[in-house]
Specification:
Layout: H1 7-21, E1 26-32, H2 44-48, E2 53-58, H3 65-77, E3 81-84, H4 96-113, E4 121-127, H5 133-141, E5 160-163, E6 167-170, E7 174-175, H6 183-192, H7 202-216, H8 219-225, H9 237-250, H10 262-274
Parallel strand pairs: 1-2, 1-4, 2-3, 4-6, 4-7
Antiparallel strand pairs: 5-6
Helix pairs in contact: 6-7, 7-9, 7-10, 9-10
The structure holds guanosine-5',3'-tetraphosphate (G4P).
């Protein structure tokens, strides 16, 4: 479920996270490995204040491994502790606790000095809608506890989930809003399905994606659709639309009279990206990040 964010929603979401922050030692910030910068909340640092933060690049199974490696290097260079994961399959999920403990080391030491007994790390997962928060909560819990598609403004009683003996996790995640100012960010989010197709037209999103893939992953058109001829001039919209029409032609998006149904062709193309049928693709690299 995708939320349309109005200022009231944002204020409410922020207030809810701030309430949860009072209860926790550590925040896990979930980003989409395919677009770590665009899927990051613009105010996250300010919202979390001084809380230790572990960044997880989720859906790494869909991202380009070389790009993910570059993101990990970039974030590590910025002194951010980061781990790529796949919450669906559970890849690297076991490494979350050891990383969390590393981040908590100074706090553990402070507790020890005060003579306090060590206790489980109280943890909150935060991230924008659809990034995989509920999937990760369910995986860490080892059972189904979180309903997918939580909305801000719906307050439920909070409960702690035991993740082994050393971590307690809040059962409801902190829901954050994405960046909106940059239209490129909106298109990247929409391409992955994080923004609903009704908000940005799928034809516009498919147009954006076609141009991006021609530049960064040109071989996908031949591999998936058997298309050899790519636009020579990506600034010529007719050529890019021609490419979408070629996809539509090969995938049966044809109306009566033989005309290509561009809307259907766009949906097919986007669906192929979202389900990994185009291969492992990242939509931004550290160098692209603003
Ligand atoms: P949220 O709580 O942050 O809103 O996200 P949620 O867990 O509901 O996950 C959103 C979609 O992302 C789900 O797909 C989920 O299966 C998928 N997902 C989560 N983690 C991963 C991952 O690591 N890899 C892949 N490939 N997919 C992941 P869905 O159930 O099909 O929902 P939808 O597509 O209908 O939104």
């Amino acid at each position: 479920m995708t939320i349309q964010w109005f200022p009231g929603h944002m204020t409410r979401a922020r207030r809810q996270i701030e309430e949860k922050l009072k209860l926790i030692d550590l925040a896990i910030e979930l980003l989409d490995a395919r677009l770590p910068d665009s899927s990051r909340n613009p105010m996250i640092g300010e919202i979390l204040g001084g809380k230790p933060r572990l960044v997880l690049l989720n859906k790494s199974d869909l991202a380009d491994p070389a790009a993910t490696e570059r993101w990990v290097e970039k974030l590590a260079a910025d002194h951010i502790k980061v781990l790529p994961i796949d919450a669906n399959a559970g890849t690297n999920v076991r490494d979350i606790l050891p990383r969390a403990k590393e981040l908590m080391a100074p706090k553990f030491e402070a507790w020890r000095k005060k003579g306090m007994e060590p206790r489980p790390i109280r943890t909150l997962i935060v991230g924008i809608p659809n990034v995989g928060k509920s999937t990760l909560i369910n995986r860490l819990a080892g059972r189904h506890v979180a309903a997918t598609g939580d909305r801000p403004g719906v307050t439920k009683g909070q409960q702690w989930i035991k993740v082994g003996k050393e971590m307690d996790l809040l059962d409801t995640p902190g829901i954050l809003w994405p960046k909106f100012e940059d239209p490129q960010v909106g298109f990247r989010l929409a391409a992955t399905g994080a923004i609903r197709d009704e908000i940005l037209h799928s034809e516009d999103v498919a147009f954006f994606l076609a141009k991006y893939l021609c530049t960064h992953y040109p071989s996908v058109f031949q591999e998936r659709y058997g298309i050899d001829e790519l636009p020579e001039d990506l600034d010529n919209p007719h050529e890019v639309v021609g490419l979408l029409e070629a996809i539509g032609k090969r995938r049966g998006a044809i109306m009566s009279g033989g005309k290509i149904n561009l809307s259907k062709a766009s949906d097919v193309f986007l669906h192929d990206l979202r389900t990994g049928k185009l291969g492992r693709i990242s939509l931004e690299l550290p160098a692209d990040a603003p």
